[in-house]
Amino acid sequence: MAKYVLWGCYCENALEKRTPYREAHLQGLQAQKDKGILLALGPTTDNQKVFGIYEAEDEATVRQLIEADPYWQNGIWTEYEVHAWNQVF
């Protein structure tokens, strides 16, 4: 399986706006982590960007997971990029 990194952006006032979607978001992430697909995910300390590491069959799978997330569907994440990652260390 290949590894992919996610870089995305949060909306303005994300900490307040995410509240109705947070529990579903966290449950979905935990399910991905339990399946070994999501290795790590979290915001930058200024809560402007999100970074994640996935291990999946292909980039399309990662994009499907991101776009199914309540944060994406409800505008908490406003844009994202996925890049294949060559983990050296």
Structural overview:
This protein has a 4-stranded antiparallel β-sheet with strand order 2-3-1-4. It is an alpha+beta fold. It contains 4 helices and 4 strands; from the N terminus they run E-H-H-E-E-H-H-E.
Q: Which helices and strands appear, and what pairs or packs with what?
A:
Blueprint: E1 2-10, H1 14-17, H2 22-34, E2 38-43, E3 49-56, H3 59-68, H4 70-73, E4 77-85
Main sheet attributes: strand count, strand direction, barrel closure:
4 strands, antiparallel
Biggest sheet, spatial arrangement of strands: 2-3-1-4
Helix content: 25-40%
Order of helices and strands: EHHEEHHE
- Mean pLDDT, as a whole number? 97
Low-confidence stretches: none
C-alpha end-to-end distance:
17 Å
* Number of helices, counting only DSSP H or I runs of 4 residues or more: 4
Number of strands: 4
3D shape? globular
Radius of gyration: 13 Å
DSSP strand (E) fraction? 35-45%
Structural class: alpha+beta
